[in-house]
Amino acid sequence: MTRFVVPALLLVAGVAVPACAQPAPVTAQSGNVRVFDVPAGSRLHDVAPAPDGRIWYTAQRTGKLGTLDPKTGRIEEVPLGDGSAPHGVIQGPDGAAWITDGGLNAIVRYDPKTKAVQSWPLPADFPDSNLNTAAFDGRGRIWFTGQAGVYGRLDPKTGKMDVWRDPEGRGPYGIAATPDGQIWYVSLAGSHVAKVDLDTGAPTIVEPPTAEQGARRVWADSKGHLWISEWNGGQLTRYTPSTGTWKSWKPAGERPRVYAVYVDGRDTVWISDFGANAVLSFDPAIEQWRRFPGSGENANVRQILGADGLIYLPESGLDRIMVVDMRAR
């Protein structure tokens, strides 16, 4: 692995420039890792693959959706509306960016072709839902979570939105679709996993073996296993719905804080560990970890996504996006 740390002085066009005076964007590179600065103060939260090899990110503090072109380093940002505070972003089956916006309390769509921004507010009886993440089911509908204790579904074709309350109250956070189009979400405060009925929305609660583990995010691999990041438990956990079996792995370190989880196209599992200030990849076949240090202190990677062998890491604490190239690995 190539170890890469951004120093206090970065080389820009061969000249050492103080970090605070960097022209935006600045690109740093070392081996298979590149780092891009986004506008200072963005507090970017999540990232997602965008068309043509670009990367979307949510600028939570400034209420914008950003687009980074890693080939040129060029960044474009689109305001999402007064009061916006976007959390999650994913690419929908229509090629658009779909955003969970906690500030607007709405699901937002950005069309990269027309540049149009469209939003669907939650019903009035679900105010301040603290929207978190989203996933599309096998029928083309987007499901979402809200940490205030809700989860819901929007049909983009009809605009019909349904919202339900989690049976155990506050906490719904991560959400994922399995290869067969089923939807599962996890609850950070409730420390449980739930499968939703795609027709009725009714949840089936599954309790992980580790109590009060703080299940934060979830992702499915190609075989339908669910991989769960346990924030309080400090471990990576795999749940196999077909057999009901569980297995967990704890990263090295005194106090792991596992936040993000993502499974790439090779079924390698990626997590961010706030305790180690690093992102780790995990190979389930040999049960071995590989470490990618943050580009600076308190990088705080809040989501991990990728495409075509590239892994995207939003360093929310530094307003940077790290791109790890795994294509030759």
From TrEMBL:
Molecular function in Gene Ontology: carbon-oxygen lyase activity; magnesium ion binding
UniProt entry keywords in alphabetical sequence: Antibiotic resistance, Lyase, Magnesium, Metal-binding, Signal
InterPro entries registered for this protein in UniProt: Vgb, Vgb_bact, WD40/YVTN_repeat-like_dom_sf
Cofactor(s) the protein needs: Mg(2+)
Signal sequence bounds: 1-21
GO cellular component: outer membrane-bounded periplasmic space
Xref: SUPFAM superfamilies: NHL repeat
EC number from the UniProt entry: 4.2.99.-
rRNA processing is among the record's keywords: no
Gene Ontology biological-process annotations: antibiotic catabolic process; response to antibiotic
Listed Gene3D superfamilies: YVTN repeat-like/Quinoprotein amine dehydrogenase (2.130.10.10)
Family: Belongs to the Vgb family.
PANTHER family: VIRGINIAMYCIN B LYASE (PTHR40274:SF3)
Subunit (UniProt): Monomer.
Task performed by this protein: Inactivates the type B streptogramin antibiotics by linearizing the lactone ring at the ester linkage, generating a free phenylglycine carboxylate and converting the threonyl moiety into 2-amino-butenoic acid.
Official protein name in the record: Virginiamycin B lyase
Source species of the chain: Sphingomonas horti
Source taxonomy: Bacteria, Pseudomonadati, Pseudomonadota, Alphaproteobacteria, Sphingomonadales
